[in-house]
Amino acid sequence: MNDTFDVDINEFLPLRDVVYRTLRKAILRGEFQPGERLMEIMLANKLGVSRTPVREAMRQLENEGLVIMIPRKGAQVAQITSQELHDVLEVRRSLEVLAAEKACERITPEEIERLRQAEQRFVDIISSDDITAVAEADVAFHDVIYNATGNRRLIQLLNNLREQMYRFRVEHLKNKDGRRHLAEEHRKILEAVANQNVDAARTLTALHIENQQDFIDRSLEGSEGHGQHSR
């Protein structure tokens, strides 16, 4: 664990939300390792706050699946497991295929242009060492498709799922060769949606997510320190 944090300061946010955002970012960036204990007193001292906002932040992180609470031991960073990956991506695949279908039917010329810009932004940043910026560019591409559906409930479900996906997305994007494959997949999805080719958009979107699952599965199986992965 680092001795200092990149504190996410926002004068308009309650203190508990500042603590939550700071700890969340540290977990997603790997500053806390899977399985590492999160000590309330130590974190409160480092952040210069009382234990109350730290405890409240832990509850939020637990709800997102980033932290687990262990009786008599407290909080620790959740492991990344194959079972969790499969569960999340199984749901994501179904929702994103639906989103691709509806986007084909409803996307406007202005949204197509935004999608092209988002696709180019990902290509432009593909070699960056700033994994957070790369992940945000990937998210932005998919967000255009979500919003093009015009279905607020579907957008909400996908946004909620995105929080659970973030660590998997970062794990995938650590590999720069993998990013190039993602960029090519984005390009194909863009063209299918822009041409309102529903069948191609559905097939390419499903393949996009299946490839991500295969890549992360291999990463989990080949890494040490994650514990035993259930299938």
Structure description:
It is a single chain. The protein is mainly alpha-helical and 231 residues long. 70% of the residues lie in helices and 4% in strands. A 3-stranded antiparallel beta sheet has the order 1-3-2. β2 and β3 form a beta hairpin. It is elongated, with a radius of gyration of 19 Å. The two termini are 29 Å apart.
List keywords for this structure.
3 strands; 4% strand; 70% helix; three-stranded antiparallel β-sheet; single chain; mainly alpha; 9 helices; 231 residues; disordered C terminus
Topology, element by element:
Elements (H helix, E strand, L loop, with lengths): L14 H14 L8 E2 L1 H8 L3 H14 L2 E4 L3 E4 L4 H25 L2 H16 L6 H18 L3 H22 L2 H19 L3 H25 L9
Antiparallel strand pairs: 1-3, 2-3
